[in-house]
Design a protein that fits this description.
By secondary structure, the protein is mainly beta. The chain has five helices and 27 strands.
């Protein structure tokens, strides 16, 4: 008679390490296996460890984006960077039709901030939880608009929304405190039409009329005049680069005599890296930039605007608008720039500068409710 061996039992630590490597969608299903797994997956320490691993392990790069089609309204989608293909269309739980103004304000640690008209939502697409945050303090000047930014402060472990508006006003919402606070003594040239492109290490960075705009999410201080190597508001972009930031710009060939675009001249795509982040932390420090590459190429179309810049696997990927939307892929080593058409699933849509890095997480915030 064969010997009967007991069923093997995995240690709690080993189960924990296995589950940390499981996709979020599967973890949500595994909560139904038993009460022990339900308790483990919802434990704040496990949520933090899962997020830390997701942010450090190399996986396919995914951006969350907003695209608009007149008949279908707004779509919030995931874009796979390597293939330049739509990975999935997400189901935003609130009305986002063609009759409303919908924009993605930012994305951090699996939490996405979405503004629908004058309402602002925090939303975790993976867990399908969300909440409407309180209304901001000031009023909205519809003539001049406003600028919104969203990011995560790693020092206070807080998700924050920043609002710049006219008359000169800077307001900050804290998820930990669930309140808006006015930043005292706003400056007269507060850049309402700034564009926050990225949040790196607790600093919201973007482009304003007079240079780079930086908001320190921890100190809640705005610096709106950091010098750039060159500047052209619609043709430049701030991107994340090696845990810091870089600056990219497309310069059109200009005829010096009449200052009009001459399509016979070359376009130039250039990228600079920020040498250190001292200027982000202290507004009195002069920034130092190092040129990474500059690529010339002949293109007969006139660029209208630069919508996306993203550095991935040694290549710079740009989304630009000419006579339509097109991709430009820049290889820094070979000094080459190639133009690619949009994929079929991206064609026939309109785009904003709503492109942000996205990773699934189990993060849940106070006030989150389950939504269908």
């Amino acid at each position: 008679m064969a010997e009967i061996r007991p069923n093997p039992t995995l240690s709690d630590d080993l189960i924990n390490q296995i589950l940390l490597r499981v996709p979020v969608k599967s973890l949500l299903s595994f909560q139904l296996v038993c009460k022990t797994w339900l308790s483990l997956i919802n434990d704040p320490a496990f949520v933090k460890a899962q997020l830390l691993r997701a942010n450090t392990v190399e996986t396919e790069q995914v951006l969350i984006m907003n695209r608009f089609e007149r008949r279908e309204g707004h779509k919030i989608s995931l874009l796979q960077i390597d293939s330049r293909q739509i990975q999935a269309d997400l189901k935003f739980p609130y009305e986002c039709s063609q009759d409303v103004f919908c924009r993605i304000v930012g994305s951090a640690n699996g939490i996405v901030c979405v503004a629908v008209d004058f309402d602002i939502y925090f939303w975790n697409p993976a867990t399908r939880q969300s909440k409407l945050i309180p209304s901001y303090i000031g009023t909205c000047n519809e003539l001049y608009g406003e600028t919104l930014g969203f990011g995560y402060d790693p020092i206070s472990h807080d998700f924050k929304v920043v609002r710049l508006a006219l008359p000169p006003s800077v307001e900050v919402y804290s998820a930990n405190k669930n309140v808006w606070r006015k930043v005292p003594d706003p400056i007269d040239d507060t850049p309402v039409h700034a564009k926050f492109d990225v949040c790196v290490n607790g600093f919201l960075c973007g482009i304003g009329c007079f240079g780079m705009v930086v908001f320190d999410l921890n100190k809640e201080v705005l610096n709106c005049a950091i010098k750039l190597p060159v500047h052209n508001y619609c043709y430049d972009y701030i991107i994340k680069f090696k845990n810091s930031i870089a600056f990219i710009i497309i310069l059109n060939g200009l005829n010096d005599d009449d200052n009009e675009t001459d399509p016979r001249l070359c376009e130039k795509i250039s990228m600079w890296s920020l040498d250190d982040d001292a200027c982000l932390r202290d507004g009195g420090v002069e920034p130092s930039w190092t040129i990474m590459f500059s690529i010339d190429f002949v293109n007969p179309d006139v660029f209208l605007e630069l919508y996306l810049g993203y550095f991935n696997n040694g290549d710079l990927l740009l989304l630009i608008e000419t006579d339509g939307y097109k991709w430009i892929s820049c290889n820094a080593d070979r000094k080459e720039a190639k133009i690619f058409p949009l994929s079929v699933d991206m064609a026939n849509h309109f785009y904003r500068r709503d492109f942000f890095e996205y990773r699934e997480s189990l993060v849940s915030l106070a006030g989150f409710k389950q939504v269908n």
